[in-house]
């Protein structure tokens, strides 16, 4: 049985390196994309301080993102590509680090307590198959170290999971 160890968050680079090692051990031998997404959202939500939401949206052929496994309050089920922070990350093909969601044009407020957001595209074979989305009730919660560490976790998730992810 996998048991997550407590990680010291003082050194973010070391924190995310250890979180990646824990996640790699957690999904070792498991290739199911939904199971791996569920465990990654739970691991992040439990380990990363000051979050109020962590989870996935998967891209569908109709040009929208559909809610996947997550931790936190209930969420928007469908987001059009190009809309909100998640849809913008897909449309622009890049991670979106938003220090103040209220200043982001077209922000979709699924939880009014969210103040900052980090959205990371999930790349498979040159296409974005979904996003990993993190929200915080603190303005400016995320920085470049968070982005790099979570991009690495997103890459481990995609490499370690089978399936079309909905496309």
Helix content: 25-40%
Q: Please tell me what the overall shape is.
A: globular
β-strand percent reads 25-35%
- Please name the CATH architecture: 2-Layer Sandwich
Widest beta sheet: strand line-up: 3-2-1-6-5-4
Largest sheet: 6 strands, antiparallel
CATH class: Alpha Beta
How do the helices and strands follow one another from N- to C-terminus?
HHEEEHEEEH
Calculate the terminal CA-CA distance, rounded to whole Å. 32 Å
The number of domains is: 1
CATH topological fold name: Beta-Lactamase
CATH superfamily: GAF domain
Report the uncertain regions. none
Tell me how many strands there are.
6
Structural Rg: 15 Å
Task: Count up the helices.
Answer: 4
Structural class: alpha+beta
- Summed over residues and divided by their number, the pLDDT gives a mean of 91
GO molecular function: L-methionine-(R)-S-oxide reductase activity
Domain GAF: 18-166
Protein name: GAF domain-containing protein
Family: Belongs to the free Met sulfoxide reductase family.
Describe the fold and architecture:
By secondary structure, the protein is α+β, with helices and mostly antiparallel strands. It has one domain: Beta-Lactamase (2-Layer Sandwich). The chain has helices at residues 12-27, 33-47, 84-92, 144-159; strands spanning 53-60, 64-72, 78-80, 96-98, 116-124, 127-136. It has a six-stranded antiparallel β-sheet, sandwiched between helices. A hairpin with a 2-residue loop joins strand 5 (116-124) and strand 6. Helix 1 (12-27) packs antiparallel against helix 2 and helix 1 (12-27) packs parallel to helix 4 (144-159). The radius of gyration is 15 Å and the shape is globular. The chain starts with 11 loop residues before the first helix and ends in an 8-residue tail after the last helix. The model has no long low-confidence stretch (mean pLDDT 91). This is GAF domain-containing protein. Residues 18-166 form the GAF domain. One of its GO terms (molecular function) is L-methionine-(R)-S-oxide reductase activity. Belongs to the free Met sulfoxide reductase family.
